[in-house]
Amino acid sequence: TASAESPVGTFSLVVVSNRLPVDHEDGPEAPDGTATDVWRTSPGGLVTALEPLMRSSGGAWVGWPGVADRSFEPFTNDGINIVPVRLSAEELEEYYEGFSNDTLWPLYHDVIAAPAFHRETWEAYVTVNKRFAAAAAASAALGATVWVHDYQLQLVPRMLREARPDLVIGFFNHIPFPPYGIYAQLPWRKQILHGLLGADVIGFQRLADAGNFSRAVRRLYGYPTRGVVIDVPTSEGQGRSGATRRVIAKHFPISIDAVAYEEMARRPEIQARARQIREDLGNPKTLMLGVDRLDYTKGIGHRIKAFGELLADKRLNVEDVTLVQVASPSRERVETYKALRDEIELAVGRLNGDFSTISHTAISYHHHGYPREEMVALYLAADVMLVTALRDGMNLVAKEYVAVRFDGDGVLVLSEFAGAADELKQAILINPHDIEGTKDAIERAVVMPKRERTRRMRALRKKVFDNDVAAWSASFLRTLTGGAAVQAGIPQS
Ligand code: F6P
């Protein structure tokens, strides 16, 4: 039953994520002088992954509309029911830029950058998580399924369970979950685990992430774990050898709508655009591509270093090879990201200064986000795709590249530290910290014979099409609703 004080909503599926699939922008002034609203697709893999499910399910999507201090009534955008959550400028600074992206993000990505630990930003994280939990509770019908997403909202599952024990609650972590030795640094490590354990199913990208989580639960709470099952004492059972709830912690590697990407790639105007891109770049023999949010986890600097050395060593020639690097703006108010931008742009400028000629630019660098159509044209145009992340939950760019290459051509160079490497084994796998190894891999990709390219791409495509995003969400939701039914004593067919 729902507790008496919490309102009950109408949606039988509610998705909760920090960012909505659309960000608000002020549109042009209407003739009567009032401001108009423009909604643009927001960045990141989470949105790409969840959009198809939300369009087909008629559920509600609870999240932040991308701007501070603005309230918006729920609305429908492109077939998706949107429930905006208001955040103040101060909350954004402390909860989003601070605790989420200056503490949890670097901590969960192997401390590539140093995480900051501040008590005030933790307080803001708790406050904002409460607001998201309340908004989700107010949208969810009795007995509804609520699916909470990502590291910004790890306290929401517990808060929801306390407010609405009638709900079936899932959580999916889109980023890595760190090994215990790193996780243990977090001053609020027990509170975060307690928050997550409010869910019935906790999903991770990789087997190793789920293992790290279960290990942290054993070390910090001593709860018994058997495979993917964790027995969590209910509040009544606390301290006694009494009642427990079954929580499942398991990996569900996320994916993309592969068919939609291929369909886009088959459009004549997108193929024409791909040809145009190559032509505009002076028709290089080999076009290499990097596509990332401008984030220190992505190994953009390592990639540029390897490319620069290949040019310096004359193993590659600027007349033959161009690297297009799309670095979409991200978290620009966080200091580490500001510093990274300076570092990358300095490296790009130096490399171009050293190696570009009047007719051939070594790196064509773009600090922009582009519409999906343009990304697909770039993927089609690229002979070699470079994914050199130092740590990445999944990396959907790798899967998008594969889905687009219906021509069976193109070579994917993929970091073993991206979740995608667990599945995409026929890529050229690299350790991006090993610059020599990365250079060898890039050179190998450039000279790879057509037969080998085709053989590898065929195998990669099978993986991506067999395990698309519909299979991902169906598998998670099946585990979630099946698990809840077991909990409630409902027999499974
Ligand atoms: O999956 C990681 C993630 O942080 C998502 O939660 C997020 O929406 C996306 O990357 C983009 O980051 P941000 O929302 O901070 O711009």
TrEMBL record:
Residue stretches in coiled coil: none
GO molecular function: alpha,alpha-trehalose-phosphate synthase (UDP-forming) activity; phosphatase activity
GO biological process: trehalose biosynthetic process
Family listed: In the C-terminal section; belongs to the trehalose phosphatase family.
This protein's name: Bifunctional alpha,alpha-trehalose-phosphate synthase (UDP-forming)/trehalose-phosphatase
Organism: Cryobacterium melibiosiphilum
Upper classification of the organism: Bacteria, Bacillati, Actinomycetota, Actinomycetes, Micrococcales
